[in-house]
Write a structure and sequence with these properties.
- Keywords: Coiled coil.
- This is CRISPR-associated protein Csh1.
- It comes from Crassaminicella indica.
- Helices cover 46% and strands 11% of the residues.
- It is built from 24 helices and twelve strands.
- The longest helix is centred in the last third of the chain and has 20 residues.
- With 573 residues, it is of the alpha+beta class.
- α14 packs antiparallel against α15 and α17 packs across α18.
- The strands form four sheets. The protein has a four-stranded mixed sheet, with helices on both faces. Strands 5-6-7 form a three-stranded antiparallel sheet. A three-stranded antiparallel sheet has the order 8-9-10, covered by helices on one side.
Length: 573
């Protein structure tokens, strides 16, 4: 993965150098002070709305070369966040403000002195670093910067106090020698001993230093169990130090890209941030970027073939259902126009809205361990989300349908049932979406839609006919059992009515069990049904007469349960 990503970045970097990254670097909010060679100082306040003028551009470039990788890789004290003798980054609260966090001036000067001592130490000035950099540290400029900071510390305090109300966060001090090569040199001097995950894994081959990349790598002294204990090489791979430096700059460039799924062609030119996929592209790297403690992390990486954005996905009211809208005080027949533009992302939005309670897309950005009740739903919904989210992700962004097809057959019905338990409207939307997904993947969805319509007509004809009829197969039984189940449940006068019976009936393995369940509910609510209601009496006797040991068709049962109920049809007319 690392070398795949670096391949095209190297070509773009060879043309533009560090400017490739610098032009996308964003300054953090704070007070920025420039010390000129005559020791005069200029200051400016940077906010989120600052105009990117010449002043901003100067600080942008100096700042890019002066930031530490993270506080664990600070030069010395973690309170100082700059990386070279040309700069000094300290949070405002250390200089001025709350007495609990402020540092006495003398103590602060001690930390600054220690900072400069470390920058001058062998850690940053050994033979290997000087050989690779091609230059030793400029001691004259080093001492000038160190002495000037100490001499001018009171002036810096004065600027902070003067601008106290105008900024928070950082105070950042930079020396201007009108020499960007000097900034670049000192930036690389800091990176050489810090760019790897840990110096423990460094090896030298000839004059070349190799180490474990720090990018997307969690291996450290607190996680020895991640080492390859049975292999001679205990880490996944080594990377040459110059490639590691480039990789770090690539990670900084990625900060300009949006988090989440991104696509990069093999011949990507880096003129714009990474982007969404467009139909017709081929030879693509898929990169899922995540934020981990302020750093870019690869949530996923893959090489994928080109695919079409357009898919044959549309949702309609396949089950001929409607529901009563309490706020509008009217019956609503659901429509799904906004999901029917046949775009792949419409499928994602539909299943997110109707099957996952808008938790699916959100879950792409979190770890599995963080998906737990009650924040993400009940325990069953959390388990279904954890088991199915990756297969949806892989289909939407990588066109890998195999996993999703398997889970649609195994688990999506459970998602529908969970939605039904939350209310009829949610159940209708979920079942129509489930059928639409089955149609898309040719899992019998087309046949199911036709069967639902045919069975409804057959059942209505049986009941309207003066002659008696027996149900002919389990499909007719399943649909009529669904209709009767809903009708019986709807007789309840309880303020909060439950649809939990659906899950119980779907779990029964044979018709006899279901008929026993229906008898139980008839005994409970039969008093609300007219003794002379011939339509219901005939239908109930047809269901009870269908005494076979086979299991029902759950899809047809759910369509019967949620579809317009034939026992209310006469009253509606």
């Amino acid at each position: 993965m690392i070398y795949n990503l670096l391949d095209t970045f190297k070509k773009a970097y060879a043309i533009k150098g560090d400017d490739l990254v610098i032009e996308n670097h964003k300054l953090k909010e704070g007070l920025y002070i420039k010390i000129k060679q005559d020791k005069t100082m200029e200051s400016t306040i940077i906010t989120k709305d600052s105009v990117e003028d010449d002043t901003y551009e100067w600080f942008r470039k100096a700042d890019f070369y002066s930031c530490i990788i993270n506080t664990n890789k600070a030069v010395g004290d973690k309170k100082i966040h700059s990386n070279n003798y040309l700069t000094l980054f300290i949070k405002k609260k250390i200089f001025y403000g709350d007495e609990k966090e402020i540092l006495p001036k003398e103590e602060l000067l001690q930390k600054i002195k220690k900072y400069y001592d470390i920058l001058r130490s062998d850690k940053y000035n050994n033979e290997g670093i000087e050989r690779d950099l091609g230059r030793k540290i400029d001691l004259e400029k080093f001492e000038y910067c160190q002495n000037t900071i100490i001499e001018q510390i009171n002036s810096i305090y004065d600027i902070i106090i003067k601008n106290d109300k105008a900024f928070d966060n950082y105070v950042r001090v930079y020396f201007d020698f009108n020499d960007w090569k000097l900034y670049e040199l000192e930036f690389n001097r800091y990176l050489y001993p810090n760019v790897f995950n840990s110096s423990k894994y460094n090896i030298s081959i000839g004059n070349h230093l190799y180490g474990l990349s720090n990018m997307n790598m969690g291996l450290n002294s607190k996680k020895p169990y991640l080492e390859h204990k049975t292999l001679k090489c205990k880490v996944p791979f080594h990377i040459e130090v110059k490639d590691a430096l480039l990789l770090y700059k690539y990670a900084m460039w990625l900060q300009s890209c949006k988090l989440g799924p991104n696509f990069k062609s093999f011949d990507y030119d880096y003129k714009v941030p990474l982007k969404d996929y467009k139909s017709g592209e081929t030879d693509i790297y898929f990169i899922n970027l995540r934020n981990k403690n302020g750093e870019i992390e690869f949530g996923d990486f893959d090489i994928i073939p080109g695919f079409e954005e357009t898919i044959d996905f549309e949702i309609y009211n396949y089950i001929e259902a409607s529901y009563y809208d309490l706020s509008k005080k009217t019956i609503i027949r659901p429509e799904y126009v906004k999901y029917n533009s046949k775009k792949r992302y419409n499928l994602l939005n539909a299943v997110d809205d109707f099957l996952y309670n808008k938790r699916l897309i959100q879950s792409f950005r979190v770890d599995f361990k963080d998906i737990k009740p009650p924040k993400w739903g009940n325990k069953k919904i959390c388990n279904l989300l954890i088991m199915t989210r990756d297969v949806v992700f892989n289909y939407i962004y990588k066109n890998d349908a195999n996993g999703l097809k398997a889970f649609v057959k195994k688990l999506y019905k459970d998602l529908v049932i969970e939605q039904i338990k939350q209310g009829k409207k949610k159940g209708i939307d979920a079942l129509n979406t489930y059928i639409a997904v089955k149609k898309l993947f040719q899992l019998g969805g087309e046949e199911l839609v036709k069967k639902i319509k045919d069975i409804r007509n057959e059942i209505e004809a049986f009941i309207e006919d003066k002659e008696n009829h027996d149900l002919e197969d389990k499909f007719q039984y399943s649909f009529l059992a669904g209709q009767i189940s809903y009708y019986l449940m709807s007789q309840s006068k309880a303020k909060s009515r439950s649809h939990d019976v659906v899950e119980r009936i779907c779990n029964y393995k044979n018709v006899k069990k279901i008929n026993d369940e229906l008898k139980f509910w008839f005994k409970r609510y039969g008093h609300a049904i007219s003794f002379d209601y011939a339509k219901f009496n005939k239908a109930f006797s047809m269901v009870l007469g269908f005494d076979k040991s086979e299991a029902i068709d759950e899809d047809i049962f759910l369509a019967g349960y949620l579809g317009d109920n034939i026992f209310y049809k006469k009253e509606e007319q």
